[in-house]
Design goal:
Layout (H helix, E strand, L loop, with lengths): L1 E4 L6 E2 L12 E4 L6 E6 L9 E6 L2
Length: 58
């Protein structure tokens, strides 16, 4: 998973391609230093992996 910090006003996400050739998920968040957000990924139609991860804003 790749995390990108940008100045977008809210959390935005892009889904993994359904053809499964692209396994990169890009999350763009607007956080201040010390904030934390939780990412929960789940899938259907063949995606059965559940991932939960915490990220801290540097």
């Amino acid at each position: 998973m790749m995390c990108i910090y940008s100045n977008t006003p809210s959390l935005a996400w892009s889904y993994v391609n359904r053809d499964k050739s692209d396994r990169t998920l890009v999350l763009r968040v607007n956080l201040t230093a010390g904030e934390r957000y939780k990412v929960v990924l789940f899938g259907d139609c063949g995606y059965n992996e559940l991932k939960r991860q915490y990220f801290d804003c540097p």
